[in-house]
Amino acid sequence: MFGRLLLVLSSIAWLFLLNSCQKPEDQPTLSFENEHEIAVLWANMALDLTAHTPGNSPTFASRAFGYFGLTMYESVVNGDQQKKSIAHQLNGLGELVKPDQNKNYNWKISLNAGQSYILKSIYQQASEEYVHKIDSLSALILNSLSLEEEDDVITRSIEFGEQVAQSIFKWSMKDGGHRGYLQNFDSKMEAKKGEGYWRPPFFAQTISRLPLHPYWGENRTFLPANADWAIPEFLPYDTLEGSEYFQTFFEVYESNTNLTLEEKEIAIWWNDDPTDTFTPPGHSYYLVGLVLEQKLPDLVTAAEAYARVGMAVADAFTVCWRMKYHYFSERPSTYVFENIDDEWEPFWPDPPFPAFPSGHATQAGAVATVLAGLFGDVIHFEDDAHQGRKKDKLRNVEYKPRSFSSFWQVAEETAYSRFLGGIHAQIDNEVGLEEGRKVGENINALKWDN
After folding, report:
1. Pair 444, 367: CB distance under 8 Å
2. How many CB atoms are closer than 10 A to CB 396?
3. Which CATH number fits domain 2-172: 3.40.309.10, 3.40.50.10490, 1.10.606.20, 3.40.50.11590?
């Protein structure tokens, strides 16, 4: 579905660009049968941008989705009397521009203007091609919404959406992650050395043997409640076969040498390698669209869903990276090689950063918590994010859609996939899910309603 949506999105955007010289009444238009559709369109553009921007990383992408979702919500929330801005509850953002209560606004136009501005502002490294795609989608949507709208309402709505986006972007520039893609790997960091500490493996996802964004955990979080994080306990290093530490890694080794076909399918489905996909936080952002297509909510609820999930993945990655670089813990590949089997390789190559806790698990736990908080945990849907993707010939495994009956089931499988991949011990996943749940609960605790 993702591939099909983006193909349609790209086609209609380029069609509008090619016909931009035509009169407004002759230009192509879109019809929005349900209010959530414009939010999904922009979310898919964000996912497309994320997947095709070189030098991207899960850390930087998570941050981007936080600002995309927040901007979406704040650009439309004033159009709903039951909801309220959350800007003043966030970490130093303060109050945003307020609409003139005596004048009319088209909130879809405000959302459209805000998304166009914030996508280009956060992804300043985007190619000229994607800047054109963003501009053409924005123009197509604006033309579609403006046919029966008064000129002053159009102008006022555009200005409001852009002002919201401008304020949020200005705030983003001081969070510690602005243009973080310029220094993904820090050559000056002094890595911890000794038993139990992370070392770059030879079977890895990246050419670089330096750790990814070692100071990302020092970034400002969206929520004050997620700023000061209590570091959970980890296991003490031990090489004795009867020790808990040894058994933790032996479990990974034993499982990884006897994977079933379905377990391999789970492992590759959730890998979301940033060089090939929209990254792990992007996968979570994509799931929101599937939920909205089933729930058919109003515009503000759709935007709130993206805001909750965006901030969930952003803060989850920040606190997770804080924990990762606190312990600087080794991957199973290192421990197994030295203490169990020196010929073993994990099913999936190691990512370029320490292990404990799992980033996949932490962000998945946060996302499941915020989505359940908004829609309830029981939901039946199929994740088709990688449907149509070419078979993994190296591992002889097809990408097959996954079906779920609850948000927490998604989180648990996301976490478990890293154990099946051989790159995380179960304690990494268990603690990650629990810490992510705390992040999500803090987001749910914000005062979203009047």
Report:
1. no
2. 9
3. 1.10.606.20
Concatenated DSSP letters of 307-340:
HHHHHHHHHHHHHHHHHHHHH-BPPHHHHHHHHT
CB atoms within 10 A of CB 269: 22
Residue 15: strand, helix, or coil: helix
In the chain, where the domains are located = 2-172, 191-444
Closest C-alpha to 132, from 48, 68, 66, 70: 48
Residue 96: exposure state from Cβ atoms within 10 A (0-12, 13-18, ≥19) = buried
Integer Cα distance of 199 and 212 in angstroms: 12
CA distance 110 to 100: 14
Question: Quick one: 147 exposed, middle or buried, by C-beta within 10 A (0-12, 13-18, 19+)?
Answer: exposed
Q: How many CB atoms lie within 10 A of CB 338?
A: 12
Residues in the chain: 450
Centre a 10 Å sphere on the Cβ of residue 100 and count the other Cβ atoms it contains.
9
Residue 432 has pLDDT above 80, yes or no: yes
CA gap 302, 212 in Å, rounded:
33
Q: Is the pTM of this model over 0.85?
A: yes
DSSP of 85-111: --GGGSSS--PPP---TTS---HHHHH
* Residues 6 or more apart whose Cβ sits within 8 Å of residue 352: 185, 200, 204, 205, 206, 208, 209, 210, 211, 212
Please state, for a pLDDT cut of 90, what percent of the chain lies above it.
87
191-444 topology per CATH:
Vanadium-containing Chloroperoxidase; domain 2 (1.10.606)
Q: Do domains 2-172 and 191-444 have the same CATH topology?
A: yes
DSSP-derived pairing of the beta strands 402-406 and 378-383: antiparallel
Angle between helices 244-256 and 407-420 (to 10 degrees): 90
Q: 356 vs 45, 196, 270, 447, CA distance in Å?
A: 32, 11, 18, 32
Answer yes or no: are the C-beta atoms of 437 and 369 closer than 8 Å: yes
DSSP helix/strand/coil, 149: coil
What are 387-426's pLDDT values in tens digits?
999 999 999 999 999 999 999 999 999 999 999 999 999 9
Whether the ω angle into residue 357 lies within 30 degrees of 0, i.e. cis, is yes
Q: Running DSSP on this structure, what letter comes out for residue 78?
A: G
pLDDT tens track for 331-387? 999 999 999 999 999 999 999 999 999 999 999 999 999 999 999 999 999 999 999
Query: What is the per-residue pLDDT across 264-304, written as a single tens digit (0 to 9) for each?
Result: 999 999 999 998 899 999 999 999 999 999 999 999 999 99
